[in-house]
């Protein structure tokens, strides 16, 4: 049995014990900062498939020297001591070194590094294909199918975000599949919403993220992601497929509008406010699944015995993780 600890195992150690540990984790984020005394330090996020934590590495430490030149997404072997700061797990790192995937595999830790959804990739992909088959308008279906034929393999693997929601391997597939299922369940309540447009818009709404993000083990924003963003990139992807499929001008414009407005608010990244029944419907389902995805993730990853999760930036609060008492 490996003596390396996963993030979840570290968080399950008694908070009153300063325990020494060794772990093999992914360097998800690294932010250079300056302390009040002018000295440099690194704020790092380290994680595996069971969760993540943040820690500070100060400029005069060996850990700072080891991690300062390291790229985000690298696999790192760590040694440290468990500590808490303001009730948040924030260990003191004592040693760090970059290792290759082959060494993590040899140590028996590679399978623990990558977080994936509870449902398999095949199950989630099947929901997408069912959604495509449910589109009755031939040219709309062809438009969606063109994008999936071109980008389907990347779509199946891509995370849905860098950190906020579904930010893990297969995350975009999970997010989109859940949106398709929610859409089809809710459509009977809202007959004003065109089902074909809603389903097509949901499947294509985040396709721009395939170009917005890059990185194998930790997603980061690409050059084009910074310069254009996934909403604009997704608009271009959908427009190209619609033109190739000879989709009529009205349906093309409505499909594009769903993508341009799905973020809900301009301060959240929307290029336009939702102004059709389908766009309002899709933006609400997107927001619902993004937030519930955050809840589902902390319910999976919060250590046993805890009452509340860590604070979630996307919800601006901590989540009560204990089930209701229905006795």
Question: How would you summarize what this structure contains?
Answer:
The protein is an alpha+beta fold and 327 residues long. It has helices at residues 7-11, 62-67, 101-106, 110-113, 121-134, 138-157, 171-186, 195-204, 209-212, 223-227, 230-244, 249-261, 277-301, and strands at 20-34, 40-48, 51-58, 75-81, 84-85, 88-89, 92-99, 213-214, 220-221. The chain folds into two domains: 7-113, OB fold (Dihydrolipoamide Acetyltransferase, E2P) (Beta Barrel); 121-298, Hypothetical protein af1432, CATH 1.10.3210.
Summing up helix and strand content along with how strands pair, one would put the structural category as alpha+beta
Radius of gyration: 22 Å
* Chain-averaged pLDDT: 91
General form: elongated
Biggest sheet: strands side by side, in what order? 3-2-1-4-7
Describe the structure.
By secondary structure, the chain is α+β, with helices and mostly antiparallel strands. The protein has 2 domains: 7-113, Nucleic acid-binding proteins (OB fold (Dihydrolipoamide Acetyltransferase, E2P)), CATH 2.40.50; 121-298, Orthogonal Bundle (Hypothetical protein af1432), CATH 1.10.3210. 44% of the residues lie in helices and 17% in strands. It is built from 13 helices and 9 strands. The chain has helices at 7-11, 62-67, 101-106, 110-113, 121-134, 138-157, 171-186, 195-204, 209-212, 223-227, 230-244, 249-261, 277-301; strands at 20-34, 40-48, 51-58, 75-81, 84-85, 88-89, 92-99, 213-214, 220-221. Strands 3-2-1-4-7 form a 5-stranded antiparallel sheet. The two termini are 40 Å apart.
